[in-house]
């Protein structure tokens, strides 16, 4: 179900930055500390302030895909809160939503640009590093921001890389109190990790050759809007991309916050496609996991398709095969629900954010209904 704006609702946001831990770093900036900034935003609307002290209300944690940024969720969240208000506040109680940047993406990527040039990050920024950054943010939030996530009822929402990071987060100690997960198009390989070798090589090549710089944000927006590879994105998503996925250079031009080198490092993360499957299998036996997949063959596994930036990708295995492996009952993975979305492929939050917001509202209603019965 897709929701169109019918109220005067305004999405409210607050920005948070967790600084590096320099206490254990040596004079050269290296050591046992944590050298990266972690950036996040908290989203809510005035109408949900009634849930601030409601012990049943949930906090949603949202994580983005490779080459995007935390604000890519904003159009989806607007539709989600719109659905919540339209359908009545009692059915779904959302206290707030938090979105966290992968440290080499978005605003975090800008703050960390110099540190990311180090050898240990330049060629090795894995899905696990995103999960570790999220974990560090959650641990540091009580002291730095006065928010104790260990006392919240958490629901995880992740797309692609963000879904993988959400799954890996569950294996880090201490474990935070998630009650359910909404996994959107996870970038995983349920079979042999080498299933994705050819895709990985092509994605790396595309990252090397894609557009990186524009004269200004408006030119970047117009370029993406007209490009046949990105014109399917919702216009609101394109706007957030031009605003938050780019950094201003000294010359006045804008460049991608996630550099081509960092994007390549993400694609070269072989365990990042297989280890999340292990966590997914384990979690399916413990908590409700809701899976959302697109039925159209495109970016992730289909052949052929242009990537969002300049290159054609030809992939040897269809998304249907991967989806069938994810859904194979013999794997031991039993999902709370599986939502198959027709006429859409991998980039669900980018292409149909309003419809996704309505779908997330439906899934949160199921999650809260189940919790009420426990």
TrEMBL record:
Highest rank taxon of the organism: Eukaryota
Ranges for domain AB hydrolase-1: 61-349
Signal peptide (from-to): none
One Pfam assignment: Abhydrolase_6
Protein name: AB hydrolase-1 domain-containing protein
């Amino acid at each position: 179900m897709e929701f169109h704006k019918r109220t005067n609702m305004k999405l409210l946001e607050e920005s948070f930055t967790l600084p590096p831990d320099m206490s254990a770093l040596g004079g050269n900036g290296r050591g046992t500390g944590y050298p990266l900034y972690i950036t996040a935003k908290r989203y809510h609307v005035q109408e949900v302030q009634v849930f601030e002290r409601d012990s049943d209300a949930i906090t949603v944690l949202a994580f983005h895909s490779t080459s995007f940024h935390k604000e890519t969720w904003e159009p989806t969240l607007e539709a989600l809160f719109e659905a919540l208000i339209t359908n009545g506040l009692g059915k779904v109680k959302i206290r707030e939503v938090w979105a966290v940047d992968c440290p080499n993406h978005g605003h975090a990527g800008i703050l960390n640009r110099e540190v990311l040039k180090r050898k240990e990050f330049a060629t090795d920024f894995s899905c696990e590093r995103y999960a570790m950054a999220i974990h560090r943010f959650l641990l540091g939030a009580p002291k730095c921001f006065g928010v104790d996530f260990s006392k919240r009822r958490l629901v995880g929402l992740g797309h692609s890389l963000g879904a993988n990071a959400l799954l890996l987060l569950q294996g880090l100690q201490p474990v935070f109190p998630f009650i359910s997960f909404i996994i959107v198009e996870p970038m995983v390989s349920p079979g042999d990790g080498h299933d994705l070798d050819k895709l990985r090589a092509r994605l790396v090549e595309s990252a090397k050759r894609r557009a990186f710089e524009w004269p200004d944000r408006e030119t970047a927006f117009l370029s993406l809007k007209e490009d046949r590879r990105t014109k399917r994105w919702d216009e609101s998503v394109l706007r957030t991309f031009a605003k938050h996925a780019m950094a201003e250079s000294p010359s006045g031009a804008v460049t991608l916050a996630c550099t081509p080198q960092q994007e390549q490092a993400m694609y070269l993360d072989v365990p990042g496609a297989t280890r999340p499957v292990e966590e997914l299998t384990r979690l399916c036996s413990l908590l409700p996991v809701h899976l959302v997949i697109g039925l159209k063959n495109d970016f992730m596994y289909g052949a052929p398709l242009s990537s969002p930036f300049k290159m054609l990708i030809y992939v040897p295995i269809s998304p249907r095969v991967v989806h069938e492996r994810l859904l194979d009952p013999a794997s031991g993975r039993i999902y709370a629900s599986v939502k198959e979305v027709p006429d859409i492929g991998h980039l669900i939050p980018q292409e149909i954010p309003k419809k996704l917001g309505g779908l997330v509202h439906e899934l949160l209603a199921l999650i809260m209904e189940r919790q009420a019965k426990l």
